[in-house]
Design goal:
The structure is a single chain. By secondary structure, this protein is mostly helical. The chain has one domain: Serine Threonine Protein Phosphatase 5, Tetratricopeptide repeat, CATH 1.25.40.10. The chain contains five helices and no strands.
Length: 94
């Protein structure tokens, strides 16, 4: 579901991608839990999309949650941590 959301987003179909990301989040929450890096990955992708489409506050919140999960679950030098920090820094001011 997350990969489909990425593909749909790349085609510029942002509303559809948002729905797919939200479905991926729910599936991952139900199967792996909110502390799993895969859940954080979906949070980060949705947060990035929301930030790009003007929902900066919600996007920032999701990226911050993703970063906290990654920091708790992964080694400090993991690329997901650096990428999420870059995504947060790239958000426009709200």
């Amino acid at each position: 579901m997350g990969n489909l959301a990425l593909a749909v987003q790349a085609q510029g179909r942002h509303d559809e991608a948002e729905g797919l990301y939200r479905q991926a989040l729910e599936i991952t929450r139900a199967t792996l839990g909110e502390g799993h890096p895969e859940y954080a990955k979906h949070l980060g992708n949705l947060g990035r999309l929301l930030g790009q489409t003007g929902e900066v506050a919600e996007g920032r919140e999701m990226l911050e949650q993703a970063l906290a999960i990654f920091r708790a679950a992964l080694p400090p030098d993991h690329p997901h941590i650096a990428e999420t920090q870059r995504r947060l820094a790239a958000l426009p001011g709200d």
